[in-house]
């Protein structure tokens, strides 16, 4: 029997949101965790806010670290494992960066030697503090930190793909130094897969760290183009899981759907349960899925100001602690899976060919974005009842690679969208499709304002 898919939530404290670290109340945390455990979840992802924990490059506050450990211990008492993010970074449209990186101390987050040393020290310290806790899964380097590296961020810290690769390797090594043999990873938003000039790359996302993390938000142009119930919208999470596999060198590399939610008004509250059911059902049909971690546990209180409107209602519980329909749907998935453990999904045997340019830097990765040919072809195949995956054009003629992934045929976006022949068997020469001019251009990528 394959390992069971993990189910969890990104923990957003009901009282004070992530500012709760300033007025940490363990009893309030315990009440939140009781509610989460009551849904049957087996893990949470937690978010120390970086400036609160490391206000000076040489100071990681001991009291803040003790509070993080207390939260992890409280989770253990309720049967919950914990993944801890480090460099927060960016959450729900707000940036949280320490003063020693901004204004009068403005230094590049990814290339300045002193800043990088300070970041590594911070990650190592948090990991080491949690290394002895059996329910500590590991560290996520930071939450969607790629958004700091390029426009549309209003004040980016520019870096090259080579520099971001070295930075990621350094940060992951620091996590491993603090807590060896844990599941350490990094997590980027979908610009990594969709934005041509984003210096964090698909290859880095799919090869560095213990698992690949994908964050699925359908307000990125998906729901705008395809509607609430369109195949592209309901399969978006599955698409990102399968798209990541094109760049993975390990054919069985696990993929973690680390963030996914139902954003209003594109998914109205009365339809959130249906969207949740469809999204999770399709994601669970992806081989090698490590887990599903919903964004988020609790709504943001209306007493807090200046959040984008969609951020207030993404929780499985209201800010008063009342279970919402989407939460009931997730709890139902957990109960069903425990009552009847599922076999591993069958391999996805049809692979859509992805030609995003150079495999390492993907300078034309916008072909994968909403409106782009790869994206639209995947949606078309899914709507027709197929179970597509993806393969890089450079590997589409590699029989060993295809066999290792269970792929029996490859197909170009042109073929799916009606501009070429039908799917070709895997023993055909490598397919290197040109981007079809008749396919709608990709939706321009804009900065996410979601949970992360």
TrEMBL record:
Q: Which InterPro entries match?
A: GH
Tell me which domain of life the UniProt entry assigns to the organism this sequence originates from.
Bacteria
Q: Which UniProt keywords apply?
A: Hydrolase
GO MF, one annotated term: hydrolase activity
Name of the protein in question? Glycosyl hydrolase
Q: Which organism is it from?
A: Streptomyces pyxinae
């Amino acid at each position: 029997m394959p390992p069971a898919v993990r189910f969890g939530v990104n923990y957003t404290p009901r009282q004070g949101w992530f500012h709760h670290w300033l007025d940490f109340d363990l009893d309030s945390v315990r009440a939140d965790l009781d509610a989460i455990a009551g849904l049957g979840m087996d893990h949470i992802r937690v978010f120390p806010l970086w400036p609160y924990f490391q206000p000076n490059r040489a100071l990681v506050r001991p009291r803040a670290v003790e509070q993080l450990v207390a939260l992890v211990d409280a989770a253990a008492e309720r049967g919950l494992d914990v993944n801890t993010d480090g460099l927060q970074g960016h959450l729900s449209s707000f940036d949280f960066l320490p003063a020693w990186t901004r204004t009068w101390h403005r230094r590049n987050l990814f290339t300045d030697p002193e800043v990088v040393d300070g970041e590594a020290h911070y990650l190592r310290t948090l990991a080491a503090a949690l290394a002895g806790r059996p329910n500590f899964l590991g560290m996520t380097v930071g939450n969607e930190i790629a958004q700091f590296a390029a426009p549309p961020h209003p004040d980016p810290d520019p870096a090259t793909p080579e520099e971001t690769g070295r930075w990621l390797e350094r940060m992951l090594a620091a996590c491993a130094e603090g807590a060896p043999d844990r599941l350490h990873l990094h997590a980027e938003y979908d610009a990594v897969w969709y934005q041509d000039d984003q210096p964090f790359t698909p290859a880095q996302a799919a090869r560095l760290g213990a698992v690949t993390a994908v964050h699925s938000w359908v307000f990125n142009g998906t729901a705008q183009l395809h509607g609430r119930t369109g195949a592209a919208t309901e399969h978006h999470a599955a698409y990102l899981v399968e798209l990541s596999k094109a760049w993975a060198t390990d054919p069985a590399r696990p993929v973690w759907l680390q963030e996914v939610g139902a954003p209003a008004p594109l998914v109205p509250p009365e339809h959130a349960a249906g969207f949740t059911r469809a999204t999770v059902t399709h994601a669970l049909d992806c081989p090698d899925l490590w887990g599903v971690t919903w964004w988020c546990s609790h709504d943001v209180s209306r007493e807090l100001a200046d959040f984008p409107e969609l951020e207030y209602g993404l929780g499985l519980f209201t800010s008063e602690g009342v279970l919402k329909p989407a939460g009931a749907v997730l709890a139902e998935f957990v109960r069903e899976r425990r009552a009847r453990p599922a076999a591993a999904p069958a391999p996805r045997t049809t692979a859509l060919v992805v030609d995003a340019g150079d495999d390492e830097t993907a300078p034309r990765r916008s072909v994968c974005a909403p409106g782009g040919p790869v994206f639209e072809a995947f949606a078309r195949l899914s709507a027709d009842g197929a179970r597509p995956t993806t393969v890089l054009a450079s590997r589409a003629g590699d029989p060993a690679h295809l066999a290792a992934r269970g792929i029996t045929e490859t197909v170009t976006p042109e073929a799916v969208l009606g501009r070429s022949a039908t799917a070709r068997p895997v023993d055909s020469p490598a397919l290197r499709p040109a981007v079809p001019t008749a396919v709608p251009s990709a939706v321009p990528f804009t900065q996410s304002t979601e949970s992360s």
